[in-house]
Amino acid sequence: MKAIRSLYAVTTLLLATSSILAGADNATMERGAKVYKGYCSTCHQANGQGLSTIYPPLAKSDWLKNQPKEKVIEVVVFGMKGPITVNGKKYNGVMNPLPTTYKDEDIAAVITYVYNSWSNSGTVVTADDVRKVKASKKGKK
Ligand code: HEC
Q1: Cα distance between residue 130 and residue 114, in whole Å
Q2: 3 in a structural domain
Q3: Cβ contacts of residue 6 below 8 Å, gap of 6+?
Q4: 56 Cα–ligand 1 center, Å
Q5: Residue bearing the bigger pLDDT, 18 or 5
Q6: Do the domain assignments include residue 34?
Q7: What pLDDT, in 10s, does the model give residues 30-41?
Q8: What average pLDDT does this structure show over 51-63?
Q9: What pLDDT shows up at residue 45?
């Protein structure tokens, strides 16, 4: 029994360490998954694979990988339109801004979720990062 208990403790510790190493904590990932499923997945699909030539993929997206996180925050908060190439495929659509009912914490969580899913980079975005991008873009839209 004691052995099982210490095995359990070690496993828990390992799991905790690996999520710290990966950068995103479970609460953030759960919150992000909720926002993703409730909003983003309509277009980018459940596993971030995108849809035909209309919605670009988020899974293993080279665009996502090559842009600074500030740019990604900007896209989610303010939307994006015009030609874009993702993984060698051209898109030219419109992504609307996320409804303002979503809090900065939701925005941070959903982007962190995307970054930490489907073999993406593992970057973490905080609500503070979101606030900074919003403040720097004020009046410049
Ligand atoms: C109504 C459909 C729709 C929804 C909902 C939507 N997007 Fe998009 N998204 C698009 C389209 C269309 C583009 C490409 C825009 C263009 O062609 O300029 C895009 C582009 C992107 C890109 C840059 C390109 C890439 O694939 O790496 C990211 C990152 C992104 N979206 C993330 C998100 C996240 C995160 C959410 C949820 C918070 C979301 N999108 C919700 C339609 C949508």
Answers
A1: 15
A2: no
A3: none
A4: 7
A5: 5
A6: yes
A7: 999 999 999 999
A8: 97
A9: 98
Q: Which amino acid, residue 121?
A: S
Quick check: 19 pLDDT over 70? no
Pocket of ligand 1 (CB under 6 A): 39-40, 42-44, 55-58, 61, 63-64, 72, 75-76, 80-82, 84, 86, 91-95, 98, 110-111, 114
Question: Residue 70: which CATH number?
Answer: 1.10.760.10
Q: Which phi and psi angles does 35 have, rounded to 5°?
A: -65, -40
Inside any domain, residue 4: no
On the question of pLDDT at 11 being above 70, the answer is no
Q: Rounded CA gap, 31 and 108, in Å?
A: 10
Is 14 part of a structural domain of the chain? no
DSSP 1-33: -HHHHHHHHHHHHHHHHHHHHHS--HHHHHHHH
Instruction: Count structural domains, the chain.
Output: 1
C-alpha 108/C-alpha 122 separation (Å) is: 13
Q: Residue 122 is part of which domain span?
A: 23-137
Tokens of 119: 């073999």
Nearest Cα residue to atom 32 of ligand 1 = 76
